[in-house]
Every structure is written in structure tokens, then in C-alpha cells.
């Protein structure tokens, strides 16, 4: 059930990425990391539909995390680009090339091989003391902040890469907060909303949305999409392992197998992230042709 929920979340997130990324590209770059970016995006029906998909994907993601660990669920979320490609291809009535199919195969095989070789912990209580949470925040927030501030001083590919890093880190931390919130729901609604988790989740979610949309808007989706898809699960998996005590198998042949599976997965993600159907370049080329 955990894997099924994660894959369903992937499909919904994939549609949301396809819609939001196309809408964000239409907003001038001077609005990056400003509230004005979000106020302009909410006026676009395509972005609002994408936001609805993101909310639906978040609910499914939370349900998956309530049943499984971060080290199990988060690697599966890298498959959202596969769904984005499939949705965009169906949307534009384009056939996938042999290169596209190879990228899809590499991504799926890499994720599957990782889960088999790493044998991640299936369950996690998502509990930690105050010191653990403070150290986590002290590690995550400076990285995202420095990347975002540095991005505003840059242009072009460097700006896009830094915003993608900031967005990926923020989204990875959001997954950790979502796991903590989902597990807290087992104590009942009253206990959940008398705890700090839901009140941390909302502002963190707003900041993550702003960073992610700024990354989408940067105009270099071939850099942004693969980077965020790698940084997000990497951050959340590392936090799951260090903060919640989740584990993956290592040592001997398993370490080699895990490294090889990650390399295959990254190859697939990079190729998928450069596909015009995924990046929205197919839409821009069609508009130019008209």
C-alpha cells in the first residue's frame, strides 16, 4: 500500500509539475523570490490547476509517509518526471523516441534496484528530541537561504541551478515535516493541532512553493528539474536516517549495488529533465511556429 500511494502521488505530482512549470515560465524573472510571483501565478488557470494537483499529491504523499519511512518513500518520488513525460506526450500527441524510453527505463530500473539493494527501513516513528530538530533546522535553513540569496546575484544557468538547490532542499525538508505531521495524526486531531508540527508545516510549505516556482521561472528547466529531483530525496533521506534513525543496508556488494543503481537513476533523470516535453520547450516552439 505504501508503494502504491507513493506511485499515485508521483502521477499527480507529475501532472502538477507539467502545469506549474509551463505557467511559471510566462512570468518575468524580476519577480523571482517575491510574493508578487505568487500573486501573478494565482491569476493563471493552468497554474491553479497545477496547484490543485500539488495539493492532491501532497495528501497522497502524506498518506504514504504515514505508512512508510522517508528512506523508502522519497526515492520513489524521483519517478514523477516519468509521469510528467507521459502526461506531456499524451497532451501533445507526441510519440516517445528510443532515447526517451531508455531514460524512462534507466530511471525506473535505478529506483527499483536501489530499493532492492538498499533494503530501506519500512517503518519510522518520526520522533526526535528538541536538540535533534534544532540541529536539523540549523543544517537545512542556511543551505537553502545561501543558495537562494546567491541565486539573486546571478543570471542564467547558475541562477537556475542555485534556485533548484534551494527548492530541492526546501522540498526535502517539507517531506520530513510532512512525515512528522502524518505520524502525529495517529494521536488524534486534538493532540495533532496542539503540537508544533502543523504550524511549522504551513509557513515551510509557503516558502517551499516560492522557491520552487522561482526555480521553474528561471528559464532553464533542463537544469532545474533534474537538480530538484535529486536534491529533494537526498535531503529527506539523509534527515530520515540521522533524525529518525531510519536505515538502509550497506557494506560489501550492497554498497556497490546502491551506488550503481543511483548512477543509473541519475542518468535517466538527467535525460528526462532535458526532454522538451518535460521542460515545456515543446509549447514554446509551437508558439513560435504559429
Write structural notes for this entry.
With 290 residues, the protein is mostly helical. The chain has one domain. 79% of the residues lie in helices and 0% in strands. The protein has 14 helices and no strands. The N and C termini lie far apart (46 Å). The C terminus is likely disordered.
Strand content: under 5%
Give the tally of β-strands. Answer: 0
Number of spatially distinct domains = 1
Overall mean pLDDT score?
84
What's the main sheet like? Answer: none
The H/E string reads HHHHHHHHHHHHHH
Rg, nearest Å = 18 Å
Shape: globular
- Terminal Cα span: 46 Å
The share of residues in helices is: over 70%
Uncertain runs are 284-290
Q: Structural class of the helix and strand makeup?
A: mainly alpha
Number of helices: 14
Question: What topology does this entry show?
Answer:
Blueprint: H1 2-24, H2 35-41, H3 45-67, H4 70-76, H5 80-92, H6 98-118, H7 130-151, H8 156-184, H9 189-193, H10 197-217, H11 221-243, H12 253-273, H13 276-279, H14 281-289
Helix pairs in contact: 1-3, 1-4, 1-5, 1-10, 3-8, 4-11, 6-12, 7-8, 8-10, 8-11, 11-12
Amino acid at each position: 500500500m505504501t508503494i502504491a500511494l507513493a506511485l499515485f502521488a508521483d502521477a499527480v505530482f507529475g501532472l502538477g509539475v507539467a502545469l506549474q512549470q509551463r505557467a511559471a515560465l510566462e512570468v518575468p524573472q524580476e519577480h523571482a523570490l517575491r510574493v508578487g510571483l505568487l500573486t501573478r501565478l494565482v491569476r493563471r488557470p493552468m497554474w491553479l490547476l497545477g496547484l490543485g494537483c500539488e495539493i492532491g499529491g501532497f495528501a497522497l504523499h502524506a498518506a504514504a509517509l504515514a505508512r512508510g519511512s522517508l528512506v523508502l518513500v522519497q526515492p520513489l518520488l524521483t519517478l514523477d518526471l516519468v509521469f510528467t513525460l507521459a502526461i506531456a506526450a499524451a497532451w501533445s500527441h507526441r510519440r516517445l523516441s528510443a532515447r526517451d524510453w531508455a531514460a524512462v527505463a534507466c530511471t525506473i530500473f535505478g529506483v527499483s534496484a536501489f530499493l532492492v539493494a538498499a533494503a530501506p527501513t519500512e517503518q519510522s516513528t518520526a520522533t526526535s528530541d528538541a536538540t535533534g530538530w534544532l540541529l536539523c533546522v540549523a543544517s537545512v535553513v542556511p543551505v537553502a537561504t545561501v543558495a537562494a540569496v546567491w541565486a539573486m546575484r546571478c543570471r542564467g544557468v547558475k541562477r537556475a541551478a542555485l534556485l533548484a538547490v534551494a527548492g530541492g532542499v526546501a522540498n526535502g525538508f517539507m517531506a520530513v515535516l510532512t512525515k512528522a505531521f502524518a505520524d502525529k495524526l495517529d494521536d488524534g486531531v486534538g493532540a495533532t493541532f496542539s503540537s508544533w508540527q502543523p504550524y511549522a508545516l504551513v509557513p515551510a510549505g509557503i516558502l517551499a512553493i516560492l522557491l520552487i516556482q522561482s526555480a521553474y521561472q528561471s528559464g532553464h528547466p533542463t537544469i532545474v528539474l533534474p537538480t530538484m529531483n535529486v536534491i529533494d530525496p537526498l535531503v529527506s533521506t539523509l534527515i530520515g536516517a540521522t533524525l529518525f534513525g531510519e536505515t538502509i543496508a550497506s557494506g560489501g556488494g550492497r554498497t556497490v549495488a546502491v551506488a550503481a543503481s543511483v548512477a543509473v537513476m541519475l542518468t535517466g533523470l538527467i535525460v528526462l529533465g532535458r526532454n522538451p516535453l518535460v521542460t515545456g520547450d515543446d509549447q514554446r516552439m509551437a508558439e513560435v511556429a504559429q
